[in-house]
Write a structure and sequence with these properties.
Length: about 130
């Protein structure tokens, strides 16, 4: 004797099975999304490390060149000072560009797994609406 059929719980059982199947598929999708975002996050961290090292090296160069430019400023020839300041300005421009890129990378890293969190929010909202 099938008590589920007699009590009319077939529809409820079918809905629960469908919900569980949907939940399993959603969990797989979210796991894949989290894995993809982790790979993106890792690449961003690698970029950040490279940029920090580059910025550190450029900072040393900028400070050295600016110091030399200040020393050359007091020499007799006008051409030497112009060249020294142009070189210092060039290194300063490169340093500012590297700093700008570093800050952009840090900003990007400040929101890891954004897509996964958004999907979980949508899933939670949908689940609450069904209940």
């Amino acid at each position: 004797m099938n008590w589920i059929s007699l009590l009319g719980l077939d529809a409820l059982q079918a809905r629960w099975r469908a919900s569980l199947n949907e939940l399993a598929l959603a969990a797989e999708d979210r796991a894949d999304l989290a894995q993809l975002e982790w790979q993106m996050h890792k690449r961003s961290l690698q970029t950040l490390v490279v940029l920090v090292v580059a910025l550190g090296g450029l900072t040393v160069v900028v400070l050295t060149v600016l110091s030399i430019a200040l020393m050359v400023q007091f020499w007799d020839s006008d051409h030497r000072t112009t060249v020294a300041w142009c070189l210092a300005g060039s290194w300063l421009l490169v340093w500012v560009l590297a700093l700008w890129r570093l800050l952009a990378a840090v900003k990007q890293l400040s929101e890891p797994f954004k897509l996964t969190r958004n999907e979980f929010k949508v899933d939670w909202k949908t689940l609450k609406e069904k209940l």
